[in-house]
């Protein structure tokens, strides 16, 4: 029906103003330090909107990401599972991406084109991101979808391989299908954290098959309800990229430079996880307690993860048990009994919430000079 | 494309489980007491989903309402303003209602069919609820839309009449159009509270024209972002109905038995607002302080609104200033200096946050017996 | 018994370090703006330690005051009521003052010498502060104690005149004793707020007899337990002094330049309360909402009291009810419907929690220029 | 001076009412479960009042203990260090005990008579509790003080042996003096936790010398300032006694049945610490996730310590990392991948915050039956 321009303008302004308020970084913003040679990008590369089985318009996904200060997201709609298709016929599978891109226009947030290739076990679910056209991935044979993705230069990762609805043991099963995809260079990553689930066995698989380690929210409803209001941040993948561009992000993912993070759980290859943890802690003050051999060291956690540490030195502590937490954004004081005056010390702490392999936690070192 | 049943089932289960967690009453639940002869229904009868210019699937609106423990909602999509129509062609304007109804199937929440009739000033925006078919309201002449609504027995109310985008003074202007609608029995209510805005002049108009007093959220984005995370509840209309059914709700709205509420602001006709306030406060303990003439009275606020009171008795208080708040769900103690021992007392308090007319606040009375 | 110096030193260091941590301004610090011509001193001039019937060493009173960032305190021990005298024989009634003074040595906190003259009704309790020797006030006849205080130039105020243990009605009774003290220039102030109690009748008496209006904590136990952990600040007297010295404080008290404050309750003579409220609110931004006649005004409350206001203009508000609160330290936005564009406006608000006389609240004005 | 009875009564009532409010268990109450054969008593057996170098009257120590719901306290005033002696000549060193006992009269709190024997290194500080007369311990030779304590049947423990003011390395040094005391049966316990300090070396000493493991607050100021407002509970000693009497408490201390606790740090002999941890966790629900081999187990932490656990089974978890916390009073869900259906399972968790020896943490087991 006909409608006057002024009415449209009025209405648009109204909707715009309401949306606008949320286009800023909120109290739930996350922060992680860069590591040497790379910028650390906070990414969530698995999520859904009404364009598959999610419950929100793609713009909400952009606004949620801005509130948590993410650097990149991908709306990975199921190509084959379209429960809202009666209402959203949606012939163009790139549509969610287009809408998110428009919403993010004025912001620094990178929008990565992506789609979810969805099958029963043993094929399971996989995300293809950095695709050029989602429509061409809609093949009835899963193999062909992967081939099409490869042709587009996509980075493809296996979603929740341990999901007990597809694997009743709760363990990932590497089928011939996946083996072949890996052999063909058609599968490059694997979720070791999906929503609230972390599978050690998926981490083992990642290491064994040299797949990029991923963590994603896989959100369908609201980030606030699933995570924020319970005191959690969504799971993310930290990607160590040469700079903050889509190209660099893609290059880093293919190179496997990632750490998956869910609150105080950090999972990644030692070569990236250790430097990250090293940067997460700033040493702010060092001095001997007056007339003693007890060295006072102040450690500030500049990340958004509470970090749980275990003393890995032969020295013991004066006032802390050997296992202690430095909460996100907080400073803790260690009092190290050095037994004699030292002019520098190698502080060694095992990061108990960080895993470089199943049950393997890295020891992080900081050389500290006593003034 | 073809898709096996088991895959669909698996996926459905996944989505279902995530949604399910939120199908309960949350920390943000609201509660208001019944008044004599009526149950008090908490309603939000103005909101939007992706089926007009909102940003969420209708199911989210149901889940939000369940979290706040509302009794009834209406998805009042703009009939004429369909910014998502490219993606959601949406030939049936009853569709949002159908989806909300299905989501609410297992719950006590009433879903009221409704639509917004949307024009520039001076016609403005109006909601028709309790309609039987939204499609038949799509008329290019506004008058005809109202006539169609009336034919369906709809309850129609004027939305945000003071909205400064349509009335730059911020005051409602009763045009010939509205006058005629009222005269024809085609306009029955008026929003005095819309989102965060309360207009005294709209209240004056409600009283002058005997229109039902309404308060609504008019939410387009997320209730959490617009209200909850700022420490607010959404605006609602309390409706005093004979029982909790659609029929009774409709009867009560036509009869004008409402109070509009936004946090600590309550607006309604004295005949409903005074009994509501009376029930909001329970007198739990009454006794003289030992060996004194100071009467101790404990007052419990059983509502979800902080209630601001001013002493309206000749007696003064021992330990409180004459103006004081009883926070939602809390108990406060008054110590009344009765000067001599009395066996009962009329406690009289002016409710400063409650309005029965512009700048008119009711004095509420409780007869209290001293044991 | 004998004790080596090194042991004493060791022990002293231990105690010192523990005490030291609390010598800073805490989260519970209070702040109130200066008014024209005067600095605003936050004072609590009625409290007890173990040197009468309090339960803490005087140093704790100093530390509590530093945490709340008070400017002056007085330890007003009961001269005649010494329940701990068996353990603290305490021949010198100036002792609590001396200990507090030593504790405050490194701080800006003023310690005012004082004592409480304690009798049954009708004489009741009074504090004499700015005395030179508490011992000389220990007279069995109350009259003589007041005479001695006057001789020392003391400022004397009547404590909790409405206390229901001494006046079962909960109202102050001005006896011949007090009348004579006032006539003789021996009684200069009156508590209208004592601990959690505010008596309008005491305020009436203050105005009638031209007594300085006082608010005090009268703390015996811990400020934290009596006030802080319940979300309250202790009651204080704001004194408008020429500068922050004992002399100026004394001069201001004799001149009656005070406002008694307990959380959101402010009580004082209009000539001081109005300028205080004026300074409590900073106007930070003024502009018309685009294309409207609705003037947006941002008001910041720079005080530690939540301030409750009622619109006292003929203009109405767009988005707020006519009664609203600006919480301590927070900013609120008013949207004033000026009906036509104005270049300046007299913002007039009645401060509902502020009393210049029983049931009389001041209207405060700010002239605001629209740029 | 003379004082009328009615005045005294009036004043007493006033002080009484204020004190009374705090005679209840507060939000900071601690709770720990009993273990088989014993009741678990929460004790703080090292603290100070104005009767040595503390800053509060002994009644405050009782009120603080009631708020944290302790079962027993001891006011262990320094016999030899009396910085307030000018004001509190205090000829009877049992006085603080007497005053605390009177304050606790109406409560279940046990008051243990005690005193601190205070010397420079190498003798250091020790507490003698369950003494019959503190005065007889005031001997200039430390040996004689210990002999006197033994004669009274006292339980004696070494305070903060690692204190860096007496031992600059921050490590305890077992001198000939202590060796002799132990050999003579004059020293029975040792603080491994004192205020915020935990020394692994003190624990090693406790085990080597078979001394009872103690944790104490050693509070001089206010529990609220030193602990509560920072989100901590004071350190305590859990004592496993046959019943809640002074006799049983003493018997248990001599028998070494203790666990020292400071927030999430628990230190004790394995034979007491393991059963305590076992009781701290209640298994509330056990079932397989539908159609899976993932066993869902709900664990409730009924203690006031956050408990940090590491999976010590060969089974892995579905949704939690192998290291996780169950916060005080909270319930967490484990999803154990049992790979096949089992009818019962030995849940084994290493308690990372609990120490039975330096760096040795116990593995706790719960046999869980699957219904």
TrEMBL record, chains A, B, C, D:
Residue ranges annotated for the Ig-like domain, each copy included: 282-367
CDD domains found in the cross-reference section: PHP_HisPPase_Chlorobi_like (cd12112)
MF annotations from Gene Ontology: 5'-3' DNA exonuclease activity; 5'-3' RNA exonuclease activity
Alphabetized SUPFAM superfamilies for the sequence: PHP domain-like (SSF89550)
Coiled-coil segments: none
Record Pfam families: DUF5001 (PF16392)
PANTHER family in alphabetical order: EXONUCLEASE, POLYMERASE_HISTIDINOL PHOSPHATASE N-TERMINAL DOMAIN-CONTAINING PROTEIN
Protein name listed in UniProt: PHP domain-containing protein
Lineage, opening ranks: Bacteria, Pseudomonadati, Bacteroidota, Flavobacteriia, Flavobacteriales
């Amino acid at each position: 029906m006909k409608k006057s321009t002024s009415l449209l303008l009025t209405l648009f302004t109204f909707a715009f103003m309401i949306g606008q308020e949320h286009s800023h970084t909120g109290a739930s913003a996350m922060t992680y330090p860069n590591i040497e040679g790379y910028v650390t990008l906070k990414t969530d590369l698995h999520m859904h909107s009404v364009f598959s089985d999610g419950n929100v318009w793609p713009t909400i996904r952009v606004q949620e990401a801005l509130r948590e200060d993410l650097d990149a997201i991908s709306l990975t709609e199921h190509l084959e599972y379209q429960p809202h298709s009666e209402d959203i016929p949606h012939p163009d599978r790139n549509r969610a991406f287009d809408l998110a891109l428009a919403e993010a226009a004025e912001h620094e947030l990178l929008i990565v084109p992506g789609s979810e290739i969805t099958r029963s076990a043993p094929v399971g679910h996989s995300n293809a991101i950095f695709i050029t056209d989602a429509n061409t991935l809609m093949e009835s044979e899963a193999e062909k979808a992967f081939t099409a993705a490869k042709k587009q230069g996509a980075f493809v990762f296996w979603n929740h391989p341990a999901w007990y609805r597809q694997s009743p043991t709760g363990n990932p099963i590497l089928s011939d299908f996946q083996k072949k995809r890996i052999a063909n260079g058609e599968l490059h990553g694997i979720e070791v954290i999906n929503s609230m689930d972390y599978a050690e066995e998926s981490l083992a698989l990642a290491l064994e098959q040299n797949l990029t380690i991923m963590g994603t929210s896989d959100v369908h409803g609201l980030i606030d309800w699933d995570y924020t209001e319970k005191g959690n941040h969504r799971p993310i993948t930290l990607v160590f990229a040469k700079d903050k561009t889509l190209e660099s992000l893609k290059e880093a993912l293919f190179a496997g430079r990632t750490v998956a993070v869910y609150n105080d759980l950090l999972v990644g290859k030692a070569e990236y996880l250790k430097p990250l943890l090293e940067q997460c802690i700033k040493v702010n003050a060092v001095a001997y307690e007056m007339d003693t051999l007890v060295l006072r060291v102040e450690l500030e956690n500049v990340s958004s993860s509470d970090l749980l540490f275990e003393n890995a030195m032969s020295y013991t502590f004066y006032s802390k048990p050997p296992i202690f937490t430095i909460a996100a954004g907080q400073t803790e004081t260690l009092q190290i009994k050095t037994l004699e005056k030292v002019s520098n010390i190698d502080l060694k702490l095992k990061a108990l919430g960080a895993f470089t392999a199943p049950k393997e936690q890295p020891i992080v070192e900081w050389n500290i000079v006593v003034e």
